[in-house]
Specification:
Strand content: 15-25%
Radius of gyration: 22 Å
Distance between the termini: 49 Å
Largest sheet: 3 strands, antiparallel
Structural class: alpha+beta
Oligomer: single chain
Number of helices: 3
Number of strands: 3
Shape: extended
Number of domains: 2
Strand order of the largest sheet: 1-2-3
């Protein structure tokens, strides 16, 4: 973010341990303006899985084209699996090639 003014400014980020959130604050001196944006931080779990190499290589190419990631796919699939009975049934009944 760039501010193009003649004012002195500082941008700071700080961690609030009580709320487990990151705060991005913009302070503009010589004026009575203070803007604060609270961005909730999601807790993530690092995991590993073994997948078919050829299928994964094809997937990587598609992800680049679509600007998508394996993380996006996994998170969305987990959400659908937990919340959509039709999706869950389709996954449980799917037969791999």
């Amino acid at each position: 973010m760039h501010l193009r003014t003649g004012r002195t400014y500082a941008i700071g980020a700080q961690k609030n341990k009580d709320l487990d959130r990151d705060f991005l604050s913009l302070y503009i001196y010589n004026k009575d303006i203070t803007m604060t944006n609270t961005i909730p931080k999601k807790k993530m779990v690092l995991t590993s899985v073994k997948v078919d190499e050829e299928r994964f290589n094809d997937f990587k190419v598609e992800c680049i084209r679509d600007r998508f990631s394996l993380t996006n796919l996994v998170n969305r699939c987990m959400d659908l699996y937990l919340n959509d009975e039709d999706f869950k049934r389709a996954i449980l009944n799917h037969k791999e090639d």
